[in-house]
Amino acid sequence: MKKIFLVSFLIITLFSFGYSSILKITVDAAIHPITSEYIRNTIDRAERENAQLIIIVLNTPGGLDTSMREIIERILGSKVPVAVYVSPAGARAASAGFFIGVACDIFAMAPGTSTGAAHPVGISITGQQMDETMAEKVTHDAAAYIKSIAEKRGRNTKMAEDAVRKSLSYTEKEAFEGKLIDIIAKSDKELIAHFDGREIQRFNGETIKLDLKDEEILEVSMTARQKFLLTISNPNLAYLLLMLGLLGLYFELSNPGAILPGVLGTISLLLAIFAFQILPINYVGLMLILLAIGLFILELKVQSYGILSVGGIISMIIGSIMLIDTPIPELRPSLKFIIPVAIGLSLIFIFLITITIRAHARKVFTGKEGLVGEIGFAQSRLNPEGKVFVHGEIWHAEALEDIPKGVKVEVVEVMQNLKIKVKKA
């Protein structure tokens, strides 16, 4: 009885964990730490569940070298075969995506797709392209890396190397005829049907037979955390978070005690900093943005007749354009987005500064200081002291000159003991 109960418990437990023979994920984004974590976590899950195959539906313009190598290292060490399927029609596996495809056990493409264009492009922290010697070293390293993987996978090493050295791209037909990919499949089901019952050779030399017939395909989505991080890693949103963060902190510093702008600004700035760990940030661009804010603040102290404000706007726009410098359009903010935001926030900064300047220059209307400049009349002769009626009240006053009764007077100073100093108005 106990054995029956134990077996039943194990069966229920296995089903509750949702074990499946084929796991499928979709990567429709640049290759960076978030997509790398997504792919690596899926491979970990597939190994725990003894899956037969992992299918990565890929559509990417490329991405970061470090994230790409993390993914490839995990794929090559995976106990479960991994297939990359470039889909849907119009999709591509360019640059880092090409490396990942070549590294997989199965490399498939849908009709109307492309792959290749894997020439490495490096950016220094100043936003300048790498010098010729360094660029050549990086290219040689990438070419050797792709050749090594392609040779081990039995793929066309010449085509793989040309994709790196000459930045060539291939259609699905060219890639299949050149034995760079394994199949042109109209769907993932066609891919599965093609390889069902076939033997494939793993990267470690082991040969295994795939048993995929009638197996359920389980789609693995990103976690809520990964979706959130993927959202804020959008370069347009990351740039906007940076601007809002700086604006919030400026407002809090110029109006201490407001609290809400400071809290929201700090949160926005921290999220922007996280996003910039994913995106290739140019620190010269960031310094220009900070310089722009410095020029706006300096406008408060120096009467520049708008020169500092104009300089701040120019610095803000140039810094925003330079902030994220990468050859991959999907990893940098759009100019159509940058320029309106930069100009808009610059105008907000100038508006806040103008309000501050006017507030500082405005005459005080309350307290003792508010009496200075008020007009009243002498209730008695002031020689030099007497009584005056100012601001609806009778005050003990001291005059700078002899002032007859009934003459208009102006308050010059508020002295101690509620005594004021006046002169003829």
Written overview of the protein:
This protein is α/β, with parallel strands linked by helices and 425 residues long. It has three domains: 17-224, 2-enoyl-CoA Hydratase, Chain A, domain 1, CATH 3.90.226; 233-361, no CATH class; 368-424, Nucleic acid-binding proteins (OB fold (Dihydrolipoamide Acetyltransferase, E2P)). 48% of the residues lie in helices and 17% in strands. The protein has helices spanning 2-16, 33-48, 65-76, 96-103, 132-153, 157-165, 172-177, 188-195, 224-232, 235-254, 260-278, 283-301, 307-322, 335-361, and strands spanning 22-27, 53-58, 82-86, 92-94, 106-109, 114-116, 169-171, 183-184, 199-201, 207-209, 217-219, 375-378, 385-390, 393-399, 408-414, 419-424. Helix 12 (283-301) packs antiparallel against helix 13. The radius of gyration is 35 Å and the shape is elongated. The N and C termini lie far apart (110 Å). Residues 9-18 and 123-128 have low confidence and may be disordered.
Task: Summarize this structure as a short list of keywords or feature phrases.
425 residues; alpha/beta; 2-enoyl-CoA Hydratase, Chain A, domain 1; OB fold (Dihydrolipoamide Acetyltransferase, E2P); 3 domains; six-stranded parallel beta sheet; 14 helices; 48% helix; elongated
Quick gist of this model?
With 425 residues, the protein is an alpha/beta fold. It is 48% helix and 17% strand.
Name the CATH class of the largest domain: Alpha Beta
The number of distinct helices, counting runs of at least 4 residues, comes to: 14
How many domain regions? 3
Main beta-sheet strand count, sense and barrel state:
6 strands, parallel
The share of residues in extended strands comes to 15-25%
Biggest sheet: strand arrangement: 8-5-3-2-1-11
- Sketch the topology as an H/E string, one letter per element: HEHEHEEHEEHHEHEHEEEHHHHHHEEEEE
